[in-house]
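DM from R.C. (forwarded with permission)

"hey, sorry to bug you on a friday — could you get me a structure for this? deadline for the figure draft is monday and I only need the backbone to look sensible"
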Amino acid sequence: MTESSTAARSLDATVAPAASAPTGAPGAPAPERTPRGYTPALAGANFGIYLALLTPVLVSMAFKIQHISPSAEAATASLGLIMGVGALFAMIANPLVGRLSDRTTSRFGMRRPWIVGGSLVGLLSFTLIGAASDVWMVFLGWCLVQVSMNAVLAAANATLPDQVPTDRRGRVSGIIGLTTPLGILGGSVLVNFLADDFTRFVVPAAIATLLAVLFALVLKDRVLTEKPAERYTMRQFLGSFVFDPKKHPDFGWTWLTKFMVMFGYAGVATFLPLYLTERFQLAEQEAITTILISNLAAMGAMAISGPVGGMLSDRIGKRRPFVAIAGVVMVVGLVMLAFAPSIEVLILGQAIIGLGAGSFFSVDLALATQVLPNPDDTAKDLGVLNIANALPQSIAPAIAPAIIAAGASTAIGGYATFYLVGAAVALAGAVLVYRIKGVK
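My reply, with the result:
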C-alpha cells in the first residue's frame, strides 16, 4: 500500500456548493464553518479505504499468493512484483485524480463522482483478487485496486479545503491521521475472523465501499460552474513529480533521507507473513494472530513516540537530531527482526520499529515544511515529498525477491538478509539528515 497521503490542493476554478444554484462567481470563498457530519464521515471513509488497502499488505496478499503459487520461491517473486507495481500505480493515481477532480464539471459535484465511482471499481477489483486462481489475475486486480482506491483517497481528502475553514483544518487533519493506524489494527483484527481468501479481500472492501458512499451522501460537494480555461497538460502532470535538487539542496536531502528510511520500513509488513511461516514454522492462523499482536505493539509505540517526538522537537527547536535518532531506533528494530530467536523478540522488534517510526513521521514532516522550495507551490512540493514515501513501497518489494534468494543460501536466511539490507539503507538515511543545512 501505498501508505498514501494527499496534500491539500488549491482550487483553480469557480466552485459553488452542490446544494445551491450555481453562481458562476469567479472564485469560491473559504467556508465559514464545517458542515455538520462532514468530519466523522470523512474519517469513516479514510478508515474504510485504509482497512481495505492495508489488510492485504499486512496479511491477506501474502497468503493468497502462497495458496496459488507452485513453490515458496515463486510466491516470494510474485508477491514482490505485485506489491511493487501496485505501489507505482498508487503513486501515479493519487496526484492525477486529485488534479482531475479539481477540474470535474459533473452536476453531482467535483469530488463525489470519483469517490463513488472509485469505491465501486475497487470493490469489483477486490472481488477479482479474492476469486482469482492465477497470479496474473491477482496482479491485474491489485493494480486496479491501487488506482481506484487512491482515486477515492485523493478526491475525498481534497474536500478538506472545500469544506473546512482554514483555522479548523489542523484539527480535522489530526482526526484523519488517526485512521491509518486504526485501519491497520482493524484489518489485523478482522482477518482473524475470516477463514478464506475471498472473504479476506471482499469483506474489508465492502466496508470501505459502504463508508465511502455514506461520505458521498453526507458531502455538500461543490459544483464547478465553468470549465477551467487552461488545459491540464502532460507537462503539468509530470511537473507534479520533479524538482531541481541543485537549486534547492536542503529539499533534495530531505527527500533522500525520507526515501532511504522509508525503504527500510516499507518491506516489513509485506513479507512478515512469509517470514513467520518459514523461520518459525507457524501455521497460517498462528501467523495471523502473531501479526495482530505485533501490529498492536507497533501502533501503541507509535501513538506514544509520535506526539512526544513532535513536542520535544518544538520545545528544543531542533529537528535533525530527532529524525536521526528515530531512524537509528528503526534500524535497531529491523536488526532485531532479522535475528529474532523467538516470537517474543520479533514482537519486541516490531514495537521498537514503531517507536522510531512514530517520531520519524511526526518530526520529519515538520522538518520538511521548513525546506519547501516555493511557498506559493506548497501542495505540489508536498506531493513531491510524498513520492519519497510511496516510491520505496514499489522498489523494496520489487527487489526483495532477488535479495531473499541471494540470502537463502547463507546462515542468516533470505528474509533476514532482506531486513538487514533495509536496516543498512535506513541507517544511511538517518546519517544523511545532517546534510540539511537550513534546519537545526
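R.C.: lifesaver. The chain has two domains: 1-16+35-241, 242-440.
me: no worries. The beta strands are 15-17, 222-224.
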